[in-house]
Amino acid sequence: MEIFDPIKIAANCPIFIIDDQIDEFELITIGFKRSKLRQKLFHFLSGKLFFEYLESENLYFQSKFSLVLVDINMHGIGGFEVLERIKTQEDFHEFQICIMSNVDDFKDIEKAKEGKAHAFIKKPLKVSGYTEFFDDIIVID
Fold first, then answer.
1. 78 contacts: CB under 8 Å, gap ≥ 6
2. pTM for the full model?
3. Rounded to whole angstroms, what are the CA distances from 30 to 27, 85, 98, 114, 135?
4. What is the mean pLDDT of the chain?
């Protein structure tokens, strides 16, 4: 796990998970429930569905301290495209973005850092890895 900037989220802001693997989302959910965090989790199977949701909801008020965990490799809009689109949209450019991957690829880590992601996470094999990740997040009241 590479943390580029401390991850800070508001107590009342959601956490968005964008991953086309249902089993991975289940691991993330279990890890989240075992952590100190109590935010709402939203799961999207694609970047396209995530952006459709953002466009349909009034989320500007919470955009600065919302967290997005996004998988690099997905059909359609992948993790880096999600990162780029969020960082270039005025209403959402301050989302806290974490890129997730099954492998620790130096080029991907550098690309995430250059794209202004807050972290690059090699997907843990155990639930405890996600719990530790969530417990390291700073919650702002």
1. 47, 71, 72
2. 0.91
3. 5, 29, 18, 31, 13
4. 90
- Report the alpha-carbon distance of residue 73 to residue 34 in Å, rounded: 27
Beta strand 8-10 with 138-140 is parallel
Alpha helix (H) residue ranges in the chain: 22-33, 47-56, 79-88, 106-114, 127-135
What are the chain's domains? 2-140 (3.40.50.2300)
pLDDT band for position 94 (cuts 50, 70, 90) = confident
Whole-number pLDDT of residue 25: 96
Check: CB of residue 122 under 8 Å from CB of residue 1.
yes
Q: pLDDT tens for residues 73-93? A: 998 899 999 999 998 987 777
